[in-house]
Amino acid sequence: MSPESTGQNEHYLRVFWRGFRTWRGNRPFWAGLFTMVGGLPIAYFPYANMHLGNVTLAMSTTAGAGSLIIGILLITLGLTMWFHHIVRVFAGVAAILLALVSIPVANIGGFLIGFLCALLGGALSISWAPGEPKPDPVPAGAAGEKSEGAGPGTQESGPGFHGTLTVPQQPEQYDTTVEVDGGRHRAG
Predict the structure, then answer these.
(1) Tens place of pLDDT for every residue, the chain, 188 residues?
(2) Rounded CA gap, 115 and 108, in Å?
């Protein structure tokens, strides 16, 4: 064993945190978190009692069941964004619509706290896109070799890449034939 070997004596929290960062980077994590945080005040405030000294204020309204359903749906959509991120666009649109519905139904959208968080989470979910995979690194032997007699269409790369050759990309050729009916439908 060498003292430079990694992974042997790492603390379990560091290993857990690295795994969590990898998991978090592969899905719309912040979108799901904001959507779930937005669902909590929307579901909570209609059932809350606020105590000011000896006075109790009950904020329950007739739409308490509606706001509870909206809050639970927002929490469910947030979890869907985390664990089933392939439907992130649907979940984002549904979160935005539920946030807008919560304004008249659930005490001005959970006193605007839940509304703004759910709206932000839905927008983040719609705009999130999975990252591109990193290209494989060049093998150690291929980086220092220089090809003798480069063929036509190849050129030597810039000063940062000594001895590597690049092939210029040719634009893809498209079929330019016109259909018999001129590209129109039969009805048109």
Answers:
(1) 555 655 566 788 888 999 889 888 888 999 999 999 999 998 888 877 777 888 877 766 666 788 889 999 999 999 999 999 899 999 999 999 999 999 988 878 788 999 999 999 999 999 998 877 777 776 665 555 555 555 555 555 455 555 556 666 776 666 555 555 555 655 64
(2) 8
Contact 59, 45 (CB under 8 A): yes
Count CB-CB contacts under 10 A for residue 112. 14
Total-model pTM: 0.63
